[in-house]
Amino acid sequence: MSENVSGPVLDEPGHGLKDAPSSARSKDIVRGKSKTRSRIAQGVSLLLLVIVVLLFWHFLGAKSNKAASRARGEVIPVEIAAATQMDVPVQIKSIGNIEPLSTIAVRSEVEGTLQAVHFTPGQEVAKGTLLFTIDSRPLQAALSQAEAN
Fold first, then answer.
1. Average pLDDT of the chain?
2. Quick check: helix, strand or coil at residue 134?
3. Cβ pair 110, 134 in contact under 8 A
4. Angle 15-21-27 from CA coordinates, rounded to 5°
C-alpha cells in the first residue's frame, strides 16, 4: 500500500526542501500583497494630499498676491489745470426736518375765481406784496346792482 504523506518535498536528493509548507508560503504571499497594497494606498494618499495642498495654495494663497499686484499695476490718469479764483457754492446735504421761522395762513376777504398767482412756492414775500389776482367781474356786477337799488 502506498501512503501519501504531506511533508517536505526534496528538490534533489540530499539538497534540502524544495518549498516551505503551503500554509507558511500563503501567509508570506498574503503579507507581501498586503504590504504592497498598503504602500500603494500610502503613495496614492500622499499624492492626493499634495494635490489638495497645491489647490489650496493656488486658489487661497495667491489671492493676496493678485490684490497686491493689481493695486500697483493700475494706471491712474493725472490731469493738470490752471488755478482760477471763483465763487464756490456752499451746499449742505443732510437728512432732517426743516421748520420755517414763521408761517402764515392766506385767507381771502372776498370770494371769487383766481386769475393769476404772483409768487413761486418757496419765494420770500414781504408784507403788502400782491399774491393773487381774483376775477373782479362778479364783484363789479354785485356793486353795480347795489348802487342801482
1. 78
2. strand
3. yes
4. 130
Whole-angstrom distance, CA of residue 104 vs CA of residue 127: 11
β-bridge mates for residue 132, sequence order: 117
- The grid coordinates of residue 26 equal 500563503
What pLDDT digit, counting tens, does each position of 51-91 carry?
A: 999 988 888 875 655 555 555 667 888 889 999 999 988 88
Burial annotation 30-50 (CB, 10 A radius, 16+ → b, else e): eeeeeeeeeeeeeeeeeeeee
Partner residues linked to 10 by β-bridges = 17
Q: What amino acid occupies position 36?
A: T
Distances (CA, A) of 5 to 2, 9, 15: 9, 10, 20
- The pTM of this model reads 0.29
User: Rg (Cα) of the chain, in Å, rounded?
Assistant: 55
Q: Which residues pair with 116 in a beta bridge?
A: 133
Of the candidates 26, 24, 21, which has an alpha carbon nearest to the alpha carbon of residue 5?
Answer: 21
Q: Which class for 112: exposed (0-12), middle (13-18), buried (19 or more C-beta within 10 A)?
A: middle
